[in-house]
Amino acid sequence: MPQRVQDQEQRAGVQVASSNFLTDNPALYEQQFPDPGHVAARFVDDVVRRFGGPDAGSLLDIGCGTGRDARYWSQRGRDVAGLDSSERMVEYARRQCPDGEFVVADMRSFALERRFDVITCLDSALLYCHTNEDLDGFLQLCRAHLVQRGLLVAEMRNGAFFLGNTELLDGVRERTVEWDGVGYRSRTTLWIDHAAQLLRRRRIWDWPGCPEPLDQRSAWRLLFPLELRSYLERAGFEVLAVFDEPGPRTDSPWHADAPLSEALAGDRLHFVARACGAGGAV
What sequence ranges are listed for the domain Methyltransferase (predicted)? Predict the structure, then answer.
C-alpha cells in the first residue's frame, strides 16, 4: 500500500488495507447499509418458524459481517455463532455480540466441530462461491454442520432476474454516506461475465482529502432457481421453499406471515432447505 494512502488512512480513521473498503470498516458498513428494524434477522426468525425450526436453539451465520443479526438472535435466546473471511468484521462482531462465538474462516473450507439447528447465509454471501466445485463444497459443509432436519436459510441475488432485464446494469450508481463527519462517495458499475456466469462489480471510493481513489473489484455467481435446487438436492437437502419476495431487501416489504411469491422474476432469491439423511463428519 502506498505510504500516502497509509497516511490518509491514519488521518481519516479508516482502513484501506484490503480489497474491500466496507469490510475493512465495519462501522462504515453499517452506516452504508442500515437495518434499524432488524428486518433481516426477523425475516430469518419468521421463515424458520414457518418451516418447523426451533424458536431458539443454535444458529450459525455464514458471512456474519458486523454481527448485527447475530446480536438480535442472541438477545432472543439463540445460541449463535458466526464466521466471516474478514478479520476486522469478526473483531467487530465479537464486540457487538459478546455472547456469540465468531471465527475468521473461509466459507468453502470451514470446520467448527459442532452442529447447528439453523444455518443462515444472507445478502448474497453464498454467491462468493464462484465455481461449481465451490458451491458443492460449501453446501456439503452446511449439511455436515446441521443437525438432522436442521434448516438452511439463504438470501441472494437472482440470476433469472437478468434474463432480458438490464435495470441494474445501466449506468453508474453514485452514493455518498456520511460517517464520523466525512462524506465517503462510491461509484458502482455492474456487468455480467456470461462465460463465467458472474455478476461483476467495480466500485470506486473517494472522500475529501483522499490522495487517490480506491478502485475495487468483486463478483457474485449468478444462479437460477432450478440450478440452485439441483445443487441443494445433490448436497443432501430437501428444498422446502424458493421465492423471490418478500425478503429483507425486496421492494415489496417483508412482514411476518407475508405470502411467499414463487414468480421468481424479482431481483432477490430466497430459499429454505431441510437437511436430510445422515450428515457427514464435521
Answer: 60-150
Number of structural domains found in the chain = 2
Q: Which residue has the cell 468483486?
A: 218
Grid cell of 131 as nine digits: 465455481
Q: Which of the 8 DSSP states describes residue 165?
A: -
For 14-20, which contacts have Cβ atoms below 8 Å and span 24 or more sequence positions? Answer: 14/184, 15/88, 16/214, 18/86, 19/216, 19/217, 19/218, 20/86, 20/216, 20/218
The reply to whether 148 and 261 lie within a common domain is: yes
The pLDDT tens digits for 83-127 are: 999 999 999 999 999 999 999 999 999 999 999 999 999 999 999
243 and 142 part of one domain: yes
Determine the structural domain holding residue 214 and report its residue range: 3-32+162-220
70 and 123 belong to one structural domain: yes
The total of other beta-carbon atoms located within 10 Å of residue 226's CB is: 10
Look at residues 104, 102, 129, 141 and name the one whose alpha carbon lies nearest to residue 227: 129
Can you tell me the distance from the alpha carbon of 44 to that of 230, in angstroms, rounded to the nearest whole number?
A: 23
Amino acid (1-letter code) at residue 230: S
